[in-house]
UniProtKB/TrEMBL annotation:
Keywords, in A-Z order: Hydrolase, Metal-binding, Zinc
The family this protein is said to belong to: Belongs to the metallo-dependent hydrolases superfamily. Adenosine and AMP deaminases family.
Gene Ontology terms, MF aspect: deaminase activity; hydrolase activity, acting on carbon-nitrogen (but not peptide) bonds, in cyclic amidines; metal ion binding
Positions of the Adenosine deaminase domain: 21-351
Descriptive protein name: Adenosine deaminase
Keyword Nucleotide-binding among UniProt keywords: no
Species in which this protein is naturally found: Koribacter versatilis (strain Ellin345)
One Pfam family recorded for the sequence: A_deaminase
CDD domains listed in its UniProt record: ADA
Length: 354
């Protein structure tokens, strides 16, 4: 964890950035829960929960009803453990279909505010199964939230089901089988997140093969907390079409060249990388070098409420800190649609609007 975000003064997002149609390709549904919504979830589930002993934030979240200020304090964590605790504080209060409907609907509302017209949010299905929960009725809630969100805010959503690397391949199979079963209900792909070192990509090879055979698209968090070899493995072992984070690709020139030549997109999350400490300082982030090397970069927020970032803010950081021109940003926005898992005709419709 590094508390420095570069300390440079950032301007608010320009009107150009706000109005640029964008797709968000690396967004965890659970990471979009804002403090007001977390407080609301806490009121819905006021029963005593497992004590978190969250000594890493300013609030001891021991299962009482959280106020909005409490929720804000939980998000002001100081290190990576604190971030995990914040994530847990949210997931422990997501219990019913109505909870998932609420957070999905609010996510759509926020995306619309950011000029985002399309998103492929990750859902931590692996975590739900790990906790022993059933998933189908929760997904019904998400789908209700998506339908209402699309109708009220004009944001289109397709889901990516996320398995957890360090829970192992047996748990991963459950996630993928569910994704296959629900693929007619706006599920477009699968991903793996979590501890890269504790859950090597090669363990998931057959799972990914099976997903692809059943018409699902493939992405994988890789090169976030470990080096380029993790990205090579995601590409070679998993045939991942996109790489989540890909931060450490820059350490291997051959890999950068391969990414550029193959047109493999990277879901770059600048603020997330700095806040988790995976990148030591904003100025050291390789986003500009990757872009200049011809890698198809897309820009995303990962867990916007927990990292205190927004999609337009991330675009503005590219401009203010890394000298991206408006034309460069237009390129990045185009990338976000080209790298999406939408059918070609739909991609073209969005691209025409840029
Ligand atoms: Zn992520």
């Amino acid at each position: 964890m590094n508390s420095s975000t570069g300390s440079e003064k950032l301007s608010g997002p320009s009107s150009f950035i706000r109005s640029l149609p964008k797709a968000e390709l690396h967004l965890h549904l659970e990471g979009t829960v804002d403090p007001a919504t977390l407080a609301e979830l806490s009121r819905r589930h006021p029963t005593t929960l497992p004590v978190l002993n969250n000594r890493y934030s300013d609030v001891s979240d021991s299962g009482r009803v959280l106020s909005e200020d409490d929720a804000r304090a939980i998000y002001r964590y100081k290190d990576f453990i604190g971030f995990l605790m914040a994530f847990k504080a949210v997931t422990e209060r997501l219990r019913d279909p109505d909870d998932y409907e609420l957070i999905t609907y609010r996510m759509c509302e926020e995306l619309a505010r950011e000029g985002c017209v399309y998103a492929e949010p990750y859902v931590s299905v692996g975590v739900i199964y790990w906790r022993g929960g059933e998933f189908d009725h929760l997904f019904d809630g998400m789908e209700r939230g998506r339908e209402r969100g699309e109708r009220d805010f004009g944001v289109k959503i397709n889901w990516i089901f996320d398995a957890v690397r360090h829970f192992g391949p047996d748990e991963g199979w459950k996630v993928v089988e569910k994704a296959i079963q629900l693929r007619e209900r706006n599920v477009v792909g699968i991903g793996i997140g979590g501890d890269e070192a504790g859950g090597p990509a090669e363990n998931f090879r057959e799972i990914y093969e099976n997903a692809a055979k059943n018409g699902l698209h493939l992405t994988a968090h890789a090169g976030e907390s470990t080096g380029p070899e993790s990205i090579w493995s995601a590409m070679n072992d998993l045939k991942a079409e996109r790489i989540g984070h890909g931060l450490h690709a820059i350490e291997d020139p051959e890999l950068v060249e391969h990414l550029a030549k193959s047109g493999t997109a990277i879901e770059v999350c600048v603020s997330s990388n700095v806040r988790t400490g995976c990148c030591r300082a904003l100025a050291e982030h390789p986003v500009r070098k990757l872009f200049d090397a011809g890698v198809k970069i897309t820009i995303a927020t990962d867990d916007p409420e927990m990292f205190g970032c927004t999609l337009t803010g991330e675009y503005q950081i590219l401009q203010d800190q890394f000298g991206f021109s408006d034309d460069d940003l237009r390129r990045v926005a185009r990338n976000s649609f080209e790298a999406s898992f939408l059918p070609e005709t739909e991609k073209q419709k969005y691209l025409a609007a840029i």
